[in-house]
């Protein structure tokens, strides 16, 4: 006998949970049993484990919004959802204390994560909105204005880092304070019903007791997996690059963030596919704030702890260029969103410029200048929005 239409989606949803959990098992076995394997195989197995765990922790992070106040839920969501990214990047920062080369990989992972978010995820939402519903842009709600001002402040501060040549504990304190201000202001906003899709929606429908138990098990189990395999994944990725003669910086910059950010890309794509493109883009803006503040702040803290004494994480010439390019991309993206709308043409510009610097990394200085020039053009075109933007701080 075939299942009812309602039971089929439920079975598929729980099947996805089982697949994600199963994906973590080979990586756990490889690490806990101390098995020897070639570096490419280790990178693949540990990467798959991180992807599986990232899906589990992202579903838990979404469901947790049902059990906390809006402000606290958003803060927890921001912290939990990017745990894989944090742990991988923290692993590189920790290893940098004994091998300075890993400082570059920490910056590579951080800049790659930030640029992927704007260069691929933001255009993806707009592209899906056009493909499915012929909408030529995505409009944010007025409440997202505060997020844009905070993101603008974090972006402007990021321009300081390459000129200083390091990321210090003072930078950490300032960025954490900026995120704390953001979380405090968000906590004062009216509560909204969270948008749950896929397995998160199924878990959210469970009775409260079972829902909280399952959410806790998913979060704790996934976090344990990530903590166990993040460092071996980080080192295996570098070893794979050395084995095949591939630029290790570029390998870490693009593959490591893809593994940890895959769930977020899937969730926002589902939002956009279902017609919730505003919620999808709003989620990505919030995630960008998180990465541009807390993720960057994690690096000097972990580096100093690993060294055993306070010290800034150094940035060499290449890393300075990468941070500068990432800040320029963020500034251009914010300038486009000051009118609370990202058009299809603007999304195409974000993706096109990202693709150029990714495929041709030697163009990063040219693309940095181009981002800055286009930012000036965008601000002149929407200059009235600059005044409006700062009114959001008083809202």
Task: Show the helix and strand layout.
Blueprint: H1 7-32, H2 39-63, H3 70-81, H4 83-96, H5 101-133, E1 137-139, H6 145-158, H7 160-164, E2 166-167, H8 169-187, H9 199-204, H10 208-244, H11 248-273, H12 277-307, E3 313-314, H13 317-337, E4 341-343, H14 344-359, H15 364-381, H16 383-391
Antiparallel strand pairs: 1-4, 2-3
Helix pairs in contact: 1-2, 1-10, 2-3, 2-10, 2-11, 3-8, 4-5, 4-10, 4-11, 4-12, 5-11, 5-12, 5-13, 5-14, 6-8, 6-12, 6-13, 8-12, 10-11, 11-12, 13-15, 15-16
Number of strands: 4
Query: Low-confidence parts, pLDDT < 50 over ≥5 residues?
Result: none
Q: What is the CATH superfamily?
A: NCX, central ion-binding region
* Number of discrete domains: 1
Rg (CA only): 21 Å
Span of the ends, CA to CA:
57 Å
* CATH first level: Mainly Alpha
Estimate the helix proportion, in percent.
Answer: over 70%
CATH architecture: Up-down Bundle
- What would you call the shape? globular
Strand content: under 5%
Q: CATH fold name, please?
A: A middle domain of Talin 1
Q: Quick check: average pLDDT? A: 87
Largest sheet: 2 strands, antiparallel
Element-by-element helix/strand order:
HHHHHEHHEHHHHHEHEHHH
Outline the structure in words.
This protein is mostly helical and 395 residues long. It has a single domain (10-394), classed as A middle domain of Talin 1, CATH 1.20.1420.30. The chain is built from 16 helices and four strands. The chain has helices spanning 7-32, 39-63, 70-81, 83-96, 101-133, 145-158, 160-164, 169-187, 199-204, 208-244, 248-273, 277-307, 317-337, 344-359, 364-381, 383-391, and strands at 137-139, 166-167, 313-314, 341-343. It has a two-stranded antiparallel ribbon. Strands 2-3 form a two-stranded antiparallel sheet. The longest helix is centred in the middle third of the chain and has 37 residues, at 208-244. It is globular, with a radius of gyration of 21 Å. The termini are far apart.
């Amino acid at each position: 006998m075939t299942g009812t239409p309602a039971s089929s989606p439920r079975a598929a949803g729980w099947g996805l949970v089982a697949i994600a959990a199963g994906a973590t098992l080979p990586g756990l076995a490889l690490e806990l049993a101390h098995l020897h394997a070639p570096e490419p195989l280790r990178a693949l197995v540990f990467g798959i484990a991180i992807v599986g765990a990232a899906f589990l922790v992202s579903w838990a992070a979404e469901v947790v919004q049902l059990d906390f106040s809006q402000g606290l839920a958003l803060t927890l969501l921001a912290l939990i959802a990017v745990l894989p990214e944090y742990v991988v990047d923290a692993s590189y920062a920790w290893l940098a204390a004994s091998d300075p080369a890993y400082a570059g990989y920490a910056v590579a992972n951080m800049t790659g994560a930030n640029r992927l978010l704007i260069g691929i995820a933001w255009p993806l939402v707009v592209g899906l909105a056009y493909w499915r519903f012929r909408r030529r842009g995505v409009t944010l709600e007025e409440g997202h204005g505060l997020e844009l001002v905070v993101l603008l402040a974090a972006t402007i501060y990021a321009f300081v880092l390459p000129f200083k040549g390091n990321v210090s504990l003072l930078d950490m304190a300032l960025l954490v304070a900026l995120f704390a201000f953001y979380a405090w202001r968000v906590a004062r906003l009216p509560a909204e019903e969270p948008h749950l899709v896929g397995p998160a929606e199924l878990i959210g429908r469970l009775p409260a007791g079972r829902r909280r138990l399952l959410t806790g098990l998913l979060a704790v189990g996934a976090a344990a997996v990530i903590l166990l395999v993040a460092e071996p994944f980080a080192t295996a990725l570098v070893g794979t690059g050395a084995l095949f003669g591939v630029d290790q910086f570029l390998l870490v910059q693009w593959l490591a963030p893809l593994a940890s950010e895959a769930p977020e890309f899937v969730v926002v794509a589902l939002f956009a596919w279902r017609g919730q493109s505003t919620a999808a883009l709003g989620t990505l803006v919030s995630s960008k704030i998180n990465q541009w503040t807390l993720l960057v702040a994690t690096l000097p803290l972990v580096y100093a702890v690993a060294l055993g004494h306070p010290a800034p994480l150094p940035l060499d010439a290449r890393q300075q260029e990468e941070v500068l390019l990432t800040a320029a991309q963020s500034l251009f993206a914010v300038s486009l969103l000051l009118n609370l709308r990202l058009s299809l043409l603007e999304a195409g510009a974000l993706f096109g410029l990202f693709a150029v610097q990714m495929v041709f990394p030697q163009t990063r200085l040219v693309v940095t200048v181009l981002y800055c020039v286009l930012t000036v053009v965008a601000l002149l075109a929407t200059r009235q929005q600059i005044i409006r933007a700062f009114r959001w701080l008083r809202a």
